[in-house]
Structure formats: structure tokens, C-alpha cells
Predict the 3D structure of the following.
Amino acid sequence: MTGQTFRADYVRLRDGRARPYLFVQIGIGDQRSARVPMVVDTGADQCFVDHRLAYTIGINPVDGGVMGTVVGVGSEQPTARYPVDLFIPAFGLSLQTDVCFSILNMPAMNGLLGHEGFLNRFRRVTFRPGDSFELELR
């Protein structure tokens, strides 16, 4: 798989904007998993998911995990970091990585695929805004 390139189309939102989303199956071991749209975000340091998803896959983000804070544009979010399994069906790609689950509600947000644990596994990321994007494995 080293050097393999994956391509995906941008997803058009209801308001007409297009974003680089990947639909990811996220879970922990043999526990429940959930399918969630996550933005490929080169401006995000971490992989970040709303706390409601943590409950869906059977974990309590305030009881366990490594507590921390994620700082973004205009806000800070307390988080709990857990190791998870990510599967990207469109690519047939499985990864194990740490994800920061928000402790507070994140309105209008599902998740971000950031550098640590996701983008750092790729040697090249190419965006064709509004059209498609490519990720080439290291």
C-alpha cells in the first residue's frame, strides 16, 4: 500500500458549498462503530470528533481517555483522547489512531481528520477545490 494514491470527490452541502469530506467508519475494537462524515482538514493538528459519537460507539468521553484541550480558530474545546479504529470504505483503508472527542457540544460539526494520526500518514495531499482531492500514502 505504500505510495498508493486515493482520490475522492468533494461533497456538496445543502447550502451549495463543497467540502473535502470522507465518510469514515469509526469504532473501538469489537464494540459498536458508526459511520461519520469527517472533513480532511490540513489546518487541524488533531483528529477531532463530537462527543455524541463517542456515546454512539460505546465510550464515555468524560470517564477515561487522556484529557486535554484542542485550540481552534476562535475557540477552545476540552477533549478526551482515545485510540480508535478508522475504516474508510471508499479507499478500503483501515487505520488505528488517536482521536480527540469533544467534551462539550460542537454545533454543526461531525469530525475533522487532522495531521496527527491521519494526514501525517500521507506524503502528498492535493486539493482541487470544489471538485476532488487526493491522498498519497507514505
In short: The mean pLDDT is 90.
